[in-house]
Specification:
- The chain is built from three helices and no strands.
- It is an all-alpha fold.
Length: 111
């Protein structure tokens, strides 16, 4: 059973956290590639392996679904981060700056 875990982190650490999450997809992808490659080689050499290879392909599809979920989560997190950063930049550009304070020169002097 899969569950969704939510936790808070500092905004500046989001890219690093997303990279760690996305890295979880690399190892399965390497294994999937190797399994699929060797299975297809077997299928080319032995047509009788088609029943077994059909099962392998189905398992690969299911593993790719898991990888896709990891990448989807990573995408959502980075999009939220980017939207937040862009919003902060836009907000800092639109915040009105206080007018300059008038100089006190000439006040209280005998000039």
């Amino acid at each position: 059973m899969k569950v969704r875990v939510t936790y808070a982190t500092e905004l500046d650490s989001v890219p690093e956290r997303v990279a760690k999450i996305a890295e979880e997809s690399l190892l399965p992808l390497e294994g999937i590639r190797d399994l699929l490659s060797s299975s297809l080689d077997t299928l080319k050499k032995d047509k009788r392996s088609s029943f077994y290879i059909a099962d392998v392909i189905d398992r690969v599809r299911k593993q790719l679904t898991d990888v896709d979920q990891i990448l989807s989560d990573s995408h959502i997190l980075l999009k939220g981060y980017n939207d937040t950063i862009a919003g902060n930049l836009e907000q800092s550009r639109t915040i009105p700056q206080p007018p300059p304070t008038p100089s006190n020169e000439g006040f209280g002097s005998d000039e």
